[in-house]
Design brief:
Length: 440
């Protein structure tokens, strides 16, 4: 018997590197924020709007991006999206005030909206069901790598050259990735670097077989009839509200509230995302391991979701301790908890989506998620401006994280593929007693 090829390993590496670039591009503004605020006389409230502007379009284009990826394929969608957002990143170097920064970040968010719908859609096609959270954790760990690398990299480029250079360099890196992706990627049955043994290995380990045809059993909006879709979306909103503090405000918090110098902040800010890489990979392995050992899929996923969100509540305690060291430790624990939950929530579309609809399900839950990205930076900015303290803002994040744990524990039902017949039956027989909001 011929040895299996390892094309799916290359695909996973490409997904990981896309996420690294994605977070490099979206995080570099938060590192440059103290410099830009001083140079362009930007207030904390205005900076909160600038930091959140990316999420306005990023959230709004989640569902269209997921629909486009499911209909036209992840190959062309991903290549176009990365090229789009990379050009927008480079154009940040031309910004010269609040209005231009907001406009460019909105434009950037349109392109970046495709990254997770495409990645989850690719994962549902290329990997076995008992590999899904491990692979999701792996490619999503690129977010932590991108965040960690950004901090010292951008600070070094800013201090040695100018604040504009990091945006130009990171934009160029993304365009190179888009070319490589378009050249290499195909769905499994069409891929020239996969053999029969690897293809059989993948497909034999899947309940659904996404990508064999282009049939989608439901319209995207019909997914909103299912309660689990709503619980995933609400829970992800609460997770993202907290996690985007680390992406947007944490550098400013360490400088202004903890008195760190810029270069010191650059290295200290690496600690939470670097620790989170290990935590997320462990969480991904744990969920798949528990599932492979006979635990129900529901329980295996909720271990990560509920446990991770409870760990995330330590963000509130980090604000009230006097020691900067203990503060960073608690922030790190919080970030680790959030990414453990994130790996599971990002794997759920592959678990529950109807056939060939994993990308659009991801788009729906990511829409809710990134409304947290819209509101979080704005609320934090105005709370800080009003109270002249980060303490109330971080305590609020802790409360919201606890609420997310309750949503995942009690609101999210059995995790299994959604049954399209329930919606179709409802359309045919309006008098039926089927409760769509209770549909799984």
């Amino acid at each position: 018997m011929q040895k299996r090829t390892k094309a799916r390993g290359v695909v996973a590496l490409l997904l990981w590197s896309a996420t690294v670039i994605n977070y490099l591009d979206r995080t570099n503004l938060s590192v440059a924020a103290p410099v830009l605020a001083k140079q362009f006389h930007i207030t904390p409230g205005e900076m909160g709007i600038i930091l959140s502007a990316f999420f306005w379009s990023y959230a709004l284009f989640q569902i269209p991006s997921g629909w486009f990826a499911d209909k036209f394929g992840q190959r062309i969608t991903f290549a176009l999206a990365v090229t789009w957002w990379s050009l927008a990143t480079a154009f940040m170097a031309a910004g010269r005030g609040v209005g231009s920064f907001i406009g460019i970040r909105v434009f950037m968010g349109i392109g970046e909206a495709s990254v997770y719908p495409c990645s989850v859609g690719v994962t549902s096609k290329w990997f076995r069901d008992n590999e899904r959270v491990k692979v999701t954790a792996f490619f999503d760990s690129g977010a932590r790598v991108g965040t960690a690398v950004t901090m010292p990299f951008v600070v070094w480029l800013m201090t040695k050259f100018s604040w504009e250079l990091p945006f130009i360099i990171s934009g160029a890196i993304g365009i190179v990735w888009a070319v490589i992706w378009f050249w290499y990627y195909r769905d499994p049955e069409k891929h020239k670097y996969i053999n029969k043994e690897e293809l059989n290995y993948i497909r034999e380990g899947q309940v659904k077989h996404d990508g064999l045809d282009n049939v989608r059993p439901l319209k995207w909006y019909q997914l909103l009839y299912y309660r689990n879709i709503w619980m995933m979306t609400i829970g992800f909103f609460m997770l993202s509200y907290s996690i985007y503090f680390f992406i947007t405000w944490m550098p400013t918090y360490l400088v202004q509230a903890r008195g760190m110098k810029l270069m010191t902040m650059g290295f200290v800010a690496m600690i939470p995302p670097l620790a989170a890489i290990v935590a997320e990979l462990f969480g991904g392995w744990l969920s798949d391991y528990l599932y492979s050992k006979g635990l129900s899929l529901t329980a295996a996923r909720k271990v990560n979701l509920v446990g991770g969100m409870l760990l995330a509540t330590t963000i509130g305690f980090s604000a009230i301790v006097h020691s900067a060291v203990i503060c960073v430790v608690l922030l790190t624990i919080s970030y680790c908890g959030l990414v453990i939950a994130a790996a599971a929530i990002l794997a759920l579309p592959g678990d529950i989506a109807p056939k060939n609809m994993a990308s659009v399900v991801t788009g729906i839950e990511n829409f809710g998620s990134n409304m947290g990205g819209v509101l979080g930076p704005i609320i934090t900015g105005f709370v800080v401006a009003t109270t002249h303290s980060f303490v109330p803002a971080l305590v609020l994040s802790s409360i919201i994280a606890f609420g997310g744990a309750l949503v995942f524990l009690f609101g999210l039902g059995k995790i299994e593929p959604l049954n399209p017949d329930k919606v179709l039956l409802r359309k045919q027989k309006p008098e039926t007693d089927v409760s769509l909001m209770d549909a799984r």
